[in-house]
Amino acid sequence: MSRFRDLAIGTVLAVTLGAGPALAERLGLGRPALPEEIAAWDVKAMPDGRGLPVGSGTVADGEDLFSFHCAVCHGEFAEGVDNWPQLAGGEGTLGDADPVKTVGSYWPYLSTVWNYIYRSMPFGGAQVLEPDEVYAIVAYILYSNFLVDDDFELSNENFLDVQMPNADGFIPDDRDEVELPLFVREPCMTDCKDSVEITMRATILNVTPDM
Prior knowledge:
- The chain is mainly alpha-helical.
- It folds into two domains: 3-32, no CATH class; 44-211, Cytochrome c-like domain (Cytochrome Bc1 Complex, Chain D, domain 2).
- It is built from ten helices and two strands.
C-alpha cells in the first residue's frame, strides 16, 4: 500500500471520527442516553442537602450492614484493619506530626461520606447499596465516632442537623489573591536587600539527607 493511500485513508478516518456525535444518528452509532440511565450516574449529594435521596437508616441496622459489607477492611468498630482507612477516632490529632484523619476528626461535610459510600463502596461491589442502607451505614459511622446516640436514625430530613467536628477546620483557597501577586510582579534583580541574615541551616532543620 502506498504512502499516499495510507495518508488518504487516515485523513478520511480522522474526519469521520472528528464528526462524532454529528454523524452518530445518520450512521446508526449509539443513541441518546435515557433519563433513567443519566439518573443512575448522577450520584451526588451536596453539603446543603441537595441531591440526597429520600430515605433513612438506623444505627442498629447500620451496624449489621457495616459488619457485612465494610468490616473486613475497616474493622467492626470502624477502627481500620491493617493499612485500610480508619474511619473512627483521631480526635485532637490534626495538629500532630502524624494526624489521624477520620470521618469524625477530619471530614468537614457529612455529604462527602454519603456520596463516597453510595458511589464507590463496598470495595469491589460499588453501588449495590440502596439509599436506606447507605443512611444506616453512615449513621453507624457517626455512632462509632461518638457523634450520635445508639438509637439515632439518619434520614434526608435530619441530615443537615448533624454537625461535623471539623466543619470549621478548613479555609477558602485564596492563593490567587494572596500568593499569586508575589510571583507575577516584576522581580528584583539587583540591590534587593540591604543585608542577608541566615536564620537556620538545612542540616540543623534535618531536611538534608545523609550522604
